[in-house]
Write a structure and sequence with these properties.
The structure is a homodimer.
Chain A (H helix, E strand, L loop, with lengths): L5 H24 L6 H7 L4 H7 L5 H4 L6 H6 L7 H15 L6 H12 L2 H25 L5 H27 L4 H21 L9
Helix pairs in contact in A: 1-2, 1-7, 6-10, 7-9, 8-9, 9-10
Chain A binds a DNA duplex (30 and 30 nucleotides) through helix 1 and helix 3.
Chain lengths: ~210, ~210
Amino acid sequence: MMMAGLRERKKEQTRRRIAEVALRLFDERGYDAVTVNEIAEAAGVAKVTLFNYFPTKDCLVTEGVKDDLAAIVSGRPEGCAPLEALRRAYLAMAAESTGGMDVESLLARIRVISSSPALMGAMHAVRMGERYELATALRDADPGGDDLRAQLMAGQITAAVTTLQEVFFHRIAAGEPLEEAGRRLAHDVELAFDLLEHGFAPREDTP
Amino acid sequence: MMMAGLRERKKEQTRRRIAEVALRLFDERGYDAVTVNEIAEAAGVAKVTLFNYFPTKDCLVTEGVKDDLAAIVSGRPEGCAPLEALRRAYLAMAAESTGGMDVESLLARIRVISSSPALMGAMHAVRMGERYELATALRDADPGGDDLRAQLMAGQITAAVTTLQEVFFHRIAAGEPLEEAGRRLAHDVELAFDLLEHGFAPREDTP
DNA sequence: TTCAAAAACGTACCTGGTTTGCTTTATGCT
DNA sequence: AGCATAAAGCAAACCAGGTACGTTTTTGAA
């Protein structure tokens, strides 16, 4: 009865092989110039099997890029405001930068995504899902609060995070070393969250 | 020398016929259940001609839904902050609600869009274009300002407007009369722009 | 060893979208 | 009026992502 057996391991292995082959081909020749047929063939698998693992072509790349903002809010420590929890989480992420994952394949992923409008669109779709979940989490965090307010906050937070990621990706794709990009990211995170917290107004201070 | 002749009129007429037929079919049977072939046939036109007028299927519906935030910022009166110009523009839009366009087809459009994930995605793509242009306009409005700051602001503003529109669409699709939805929209606009202007912080007032 | 479930497969098919090359038709000029 | 031209339309074939379906292989356990 399900001893994490050979079967599961083989499945995982196949899935990883497909994703790796796809990423390599995309990086070599561009996302649009590679067909799923080629990927399937190169991975030694039938097209239908590929689509069994990944529901769409873009999922080959965008899988696992969710930041799960909602979880950060839900799991924040007692007495910590949602926005503060998110700020800390992103500062931590900027400090890690490459959290355990293979660096080269991470960079390849970023290159591929940044150079394909279709994938940028797919990323956006992912973000929209996150936004929805975040709105729910924010509503839970502030019961009795305004519903529209939660939605607006979720939208703005998601937008900020998206922009941060895009700028980060852009720098990486432009060849900036990962470490330096990470340092600058930390700075940018502060700016972004200050903007969220205090708004655009602080042009003229009224202390 | 191009006296707006019969040719142009016929073209415009064909284009409108295609769009109307498409909207009607989508509204009757759902976006995904209608193929472009059917639309072309129903409009008495070849598929290739349809794609000559509308580059993609979703453009049949999403054409002309751009709000052109950038133009509002660029064309704002002297001494008026960008955010203030946008607030006024959206308040005005909420007051008009149905600005001259045929109401029934407007409602059909909203119904169709709100009930199709694919079209919601397409709307999003439109918004992303707007965001980019808005970032540029904001940069122009504040020369010497921080580039990232402009991008973040553009993202947040776009997110707010998107949320407002989604809520508005949702109410319309749920059968709320246009006029009432417009009234509530005006109120929501104020909330959204206050949030943008002053941030999330103002839970406890510090006057 | 045997057997049922799960995984992989091959093939044909659908749909959005593009390409090619040909006909029709409005238009501007003489 | 008549004619050349350029725009618009068309039919049919094609491409790629994705799905449906029925078949074969692999695997875990009896």
